[in-house]
Amino acid sequence: MKMITGIYNTSVDEKGRILLPSRMRSALMSQELVALPGLDENHLMLMTPSYFEDRFSQAVLSSDTAMFDKGKRSLIRKLIAPAVYIELDASGRVNIPLSLREKYSILNKTDVALVGTGFSIEVWNKEIFDRAEEEDTTSLSDLAEKLRED
């Protein structure tokens, strides 16, 4: 899988579908995606099933005792349980269930921002994305320094 990059503005059509830009579709190299809550709790994420299954099974379900860990059970309920497998249609659109979109104000005829994060696509209500970007005053150099520390 190529890195998924770019920020694209689009909208949800009257049937709840979102057209993914061709560059994002070609980077995904998959007709099937997983839609799940974003980790910042204000957007959705789209990723390939193989990435979802590899990363999240390692991170959350990797031990035989995960079911006995209260924090992991909560993470499973909030992140993995609501995840849905969806297909790209012939026109490159995804139809994320309304039950998942509603929580993040991604309704029919809503403007959205699609944000490539390397391994996934964040799907934001455009107004919420713009506000979050405006409020995030962390400089790029500070973020790069944090990477060095980790």
Automatic annotation (TrEMBL):
<protein>
    <recommendedName>
        <fullName>Transcriptional regulator MraZ</fullName>
    </recommendedName>
</protein>
<keyword id="KW-0804">Transcription</keyword>
<dbReference type="InterPro" id="IPR003444">
    <property type="entry name" value="MraZ"/>
</dbReference>
<dbReference type="GO" id="GO:0009295">
    <property type="term" value="C:nucleoid"/>
</dbReference>
<dbReference type="InterPro" id="IPR035642">
    <property type="entry name" value="MraZ_N"/>
</dbReference>
<dbReference type="GO" id="GO:0005737">
    <property type="term" value="C:cytoplasm"/>
</dbReference>
<dbReference type="InterPro" id="IPR038619">
    <property type="entry name" value="MraZ_sf"/>
</dbReference>
<keyword id="KW-0677">Repeat</keyword>
<keyword id="KW-0132">Cell division</keyword>
<dbReference type="GO" id="GO:2000143">
    <property type="term" value="P:negative regulation of DNA-templated transcription initiation"/>
</dbReference>
<feature type="domain" description="SpoVT-AbrB">
    <location>
        <begin position="83"/>
        <end position="128"/>
    </location>
</feature>
<keyword id="KW-0131">Cell cycle</keyword>
<feature type="domain" description="SpoVT-AbrB">
    <location>
        <begin position="7"/>
        <end position="51"/>
    </location>
</feature>
<dbReference type="InterPro" id="IPR035644">
    <property type="entry name" value="MraZ_C"/>
</dbReference>
<comment type="similarity">
    <text>Belongs to the MraZ family.</text>
</comment>
<dbReference type="Pfam" id="PF02381">
    <property type="entry name" value="MraZ"/>
</dbReference>
<keyword id="KW-0238">DNA-binding</keyword>
<dbReference type="GO" id="GO:0051301">
    <property type="term" value="P:cell division"/>
</dbReference>
<keyword id="KW-0805">Transcription regulation</keyword>
<dbReference type="InterPro" id="IPR007159">
    <property type="entry name" value="SpoVT-AbrB_dom"/>
</dbReference>
<dbReference type="GO" id="GO:0003700">
    <property type="term" value="F:DNA-binding transcription factor activity"/>
</dbReference>
<dbReference type="InterPro" id="IPR037914">
    <property type="entry name" value="SpoVT-AbrB_sf"/>
</dbReference>
<keyword id="KW-0963">Cytoplasm</keyword>
<dbReference type="GO" id="GO:0000976">
    <property type="term" value="F:transcription cis-regulatory region binding"/>
</dbReference>
<dbReference type="InterPro" id="IPR020603">
    <property type="entry name" value="MraZ_dom"/>
</dbReference>
<comment type="subunit">
    <text>Forms oligomers.</text>
</comment>
